[in-house]
């Protein structure tokens, strides 16, 4: 009927898992994303967490060794996206990921080498959203970390980022809410085999 009120479509929230780097600090032995952790490739942990989180779409941004990684990692429903500009640094994969989620109201950014940041941390960051905030990010012992939620209004600014700084400088200059996540996640970055062993100990303990 012409007098019926049309309900708006519910807003969608996407998630970007950044996994485009070559992982040179990790050392020899193949791509870091494929390093075995608790019986699965390292990257798969972040992807499974994203799949279990309250988000509508997940994009896995790959770069170095993309074909091998895509063939050997269960993406858990994530859409693979190859970032050709990955050698530039952190900005290029973030730009491409945000562009892929351009129709979303917001995007959650996860790092593919943080296997101990799970769906509970993503959910907590999502609950921190509000009209006052342009972004919401997790903190650990008072230090900012991931996940980071970026509202749609910031997408054009992300598109202008360059180099290896990612969104750090941008987030420092805007209205960003910090949400403590110490009790639901561990921000350990796996940058070395020792880090991988430390993450394994957490997972099996």
Which descriptors would you attach to this protein?
Spore Coat Polysaccharide Biosynthesis Protein SpsA, Chain A; 205 residues; two-stranded antiparallel ribbon; 7-stranded mixed beta sheet; alpha/beta; 7 helices
Summarize the structure.
The protein has 205 residues and is α/β, with parallel strands linked by helices. It has one domain (13-182): Spore Coat Polysaccharide Biosynthesis Protein SpsA, Chain A, CATH 3.90.550.10. It is built from seven helices and nine strands.
Please give a structural write-up:
The protein is α/β, with parallel strands linked by helices and 205 residues long. The longest helix has 12 residues. It has one domain: Spore Coat Polysaccharide Biosynthesis Protein SpsA, Chain A. The protein is globular and about 45 Å long. The model has no long low-confidence stretch (mean pLDDT 93). The strands form two sheets. It has a seven-stranded mixed β-sheet with strand order 5-4-1-6-8-7-9, sandwiched between helices.
């Amino acid at each position: 009927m012409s007098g019926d009120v049309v309900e708006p479509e519910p807003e969608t929230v996407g998630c970007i898992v950044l996994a485009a780097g070559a992982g040179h600090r990790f050392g020899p032995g193949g791509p870091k994303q494929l390093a075995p952790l608790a019986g699965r490739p390292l990257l798969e942990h972040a992807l499974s967490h994203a799949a279990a989180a309250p988000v509508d779409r997940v994009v896995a941004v790959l770069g170095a060794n993309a074909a091998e990684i895509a063939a050997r990692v269960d993406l858990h429903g994530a859409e693979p996206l190859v970032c050709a500009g990955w050698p530039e640094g952190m900005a290029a994969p973030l730009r491409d990921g945000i562009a892929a989620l351009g129709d979303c109201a917001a995007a959650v950014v996860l790092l593919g080498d943080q296997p101990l940041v799970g769906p509970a941390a993503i959910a907590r960051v999502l609950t921190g959203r509000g009209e006052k905030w342009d972004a919401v990010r997790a903190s650990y012992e008072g230090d900012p970390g991931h996940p980071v939620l970026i509202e749609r209004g910031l997408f054009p600014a992300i598109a202008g980022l360059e180099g290896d700084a990612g969104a750090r400088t941008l987030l420092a200059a805007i209205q960003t809410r910090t949400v403590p996540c110490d009790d639901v996640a561990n921000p350990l970055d796996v940058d070395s085999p020792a880090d991988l062993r430390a993450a394994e100990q957490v997972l099996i303990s």
